[in-house]
Amino acid sequence: MSAGQGDRVVVVGASLAGLRGAEALRRAGHRGPLTIVGDEPHAPYDRPPLSKHVIAGELGSDATTLPNLVALDAEWRLGRAATALDTSAREVVLTDGVRVAYDRLLITTGTAARPWHDPAQASLEGVFTLRGRDDAAALREALAARPERVLIVGGGFIGCEAASVCRDLDLAVTMIDPMPAPLAKVLGLVVSGFLVDRIKASGVEVRSNARVRSLDADGTGRVAGATLGDGSRISAQVVIVALGAVPNTGWLKGSGLVLEAGGLVCDGHCRVRDESSAFRPEIRAAGDVALWPHPLYEDRPVRLEHWGNAAAQGAYVGRALALGDAGQPAFAEMPTFWSSQFGLNIKLVGLTEGAESLAFVQGSLKERRFVAVYGRAGRTIAALSVDCARWLPAYVEAIAAGAPFPPIEGALDQPARLATLDPAWPADPAKDKA
Ligand SMILES: Cc1cc2nc3c(=O)[nH]c(=O)nc-3n(C[C@H](O)[C@H](O)[C@H](O)COP(=O)(O)OP(=O)(O)OC[C@H]3O[C@@H](n4cnc5c(N)ncnc54)[C@H](O)[C@@H]3O)c2cc1C
């Protein structure tokens, strides 16, 4: 189903996927009314610099605005959240009660930082999460005040990037992570073991296999530190809660659309499923909020929190809303993610989940620059480069083609014999009640 000339298109979520979707819609020739709803007061902006250059003080949070690639001729409704969706009336209800009618709807409400479980502790002065540009500006200010110690709760990508910035600012940092090493869940212990050495060498105190039991106040409403699961205490004036993200789907409860594992369930064309099991061509989702079957991974449902995916899926869906699906392949963008931390340039293509094997195909851990590939059932499913990105495109092609594992042998700069290793996935510590 494609949008007619007069059709009203509404985009809910004014960020990367929403902006790229709106641009693609206009590029594909849609001339009807376009409304973009966003709960933040800001025009769409870029998040990756927030945990890197913005909190470091190298870039103002207001300098992250995304370039607008096409004249949108849109009505912007910023600073107002969508609170409900009425699919029978085809209306989006906003926080001020206004109802915005649509013929086609694009849902790009992304994710929010997972909050600290205790709201009173989370609201202590000095406790931060990092998702939006206002969070980054506030955290920047707190870091510029040079706290004696920063405590980072969680060893995922954002926690590691924030720790890296803190060390660049010569601030004392402790990182608490329930896993045996930061990033172990995504990369396995062989690779994350290399990274944790680098993180520790930069001066971060890493406490692995540990949990924060409570954030402690100083008696004046400020955070003073934390108590760990083993009863030990850490003093800190700034705490960064970096526990991952949760999809922004609360406003869709009662809409009849299906939410699973937190994501909005879609088919391969990003059409959203409703409770009658129908995929609705007039409602699409894209970006961090969407859960869809990825054809490169046996149509396993995936929900990616990757910049590249949000941009590509937004554009795919914008085109689909304008032109329909006839003759269009399912959305099959290769997952890609990058991170810069502790002087390392890290790029990941494909999905490592379920990998049984790992091989260092360029460089080595010893050289501190490498490409490692991950394999499952004899196929190459992901490739990770650390300070070695120029080799990555060849492996991207190999993953897309479902090449055998390991995919390329006898290449320049490759070890004479490729050893196949176990990636060493850590046990899930969720059941540990530290
Ligand atoms: C600090 C940080 C660093 C990152 N670094 C990297 C990186 O190095 N590499 C990488 O690949 N990815 C990175 N990412 C991830 C990347 O930024 C996201 O994948 C991308 O922003 C997703 O875009 P999106 O449009 O789907 O969702 P979002 O960017 O989350 O945007 C969703 C928008 O919808 C709004 N919204 C939510 N609910 C409502 C509602 N009910 N009504 C109206 N509006 C609503 C939200 O406030 C938000 O503005 C990073 C993310 C963060 C937070």
Keywords, separated by commas or semicolons:
Enolase-like, domain 1, 434 residues, FAD/NAD(P)-binding domain, globular, binds flavin-adenine dinucleotide, 5-stranded parallel β-sheet, alpha/beta, 6-stranded mixed β-sheet
Could you explain the architecture of this structure?
The chain has 434 residues and is α/β, with parallel strands linked by helices. The protein has three domains: 9-112 and 246-323, FAD/NAD(P)-binding domain (3-Layer(bba) Sandwich); 115-243, 3-Layer(bba) Sandwich (FAD/NAD(P)-binding domain); 343-400, Enolase-like, domain 1 (2-Layer Sandwich), CATH 3.30.390.30. The chain has helices spanning 16-27, 53-56, 119-122, 133-144, 157-168, 184-201, 307-323, 392-400, and strands spanning 9-12, 34-38, 75-78, 82-86, 91-94, 99-101, 104-107, 111-113, 127-128, 149-153, 172-176, 205-207, 212-217, 223-228, 233-235, 238-241, 245-247, 259-260, 263-265, 271-273, 279-285, 290-294, 300-302, 336-341, 344-350, 357-364, 369-376, 379-386. The strands form seven sheets. It has a six-stranded mixed beta sheet, covered by helices on one side. Helix 1 (16-27) runs parallel beside helix 7. The longest helix is centred in the middle third of the chain and has 18 residues, at 184-201. It starts with 8 loop residues before the first strand and ends in a 34-residue tail after the last helix.
The strand line-up of the biggest sheet is: 3-2-1-7-21-20
User: Regarding quaternary structure, how should these chains be classified?
Assistant: single chain
Q: Major β-sheet, in short?
A: 6 strands, mixed
Instruction: Tell me the count of domains.
Output: 3
Helix content class: 10-25%
Helix count from the secondary structure assignment: 8
- The dominant shape is globular
Which residues sit in consecutive blocks of at least 5 with pLDDT less than 50?
A: none
The CATH top-level class label of the largest domain: Alpha Beta
Strand content range: 25-35%
CATH superfamily of the largest domain: FAD/NAD(P)-binding domain
- The CATH architecture of the largest domain would be 3-Layer(bba) Sandwich
Query: How would you classify the helix and strand content by structural class?
Result: alpha/beta
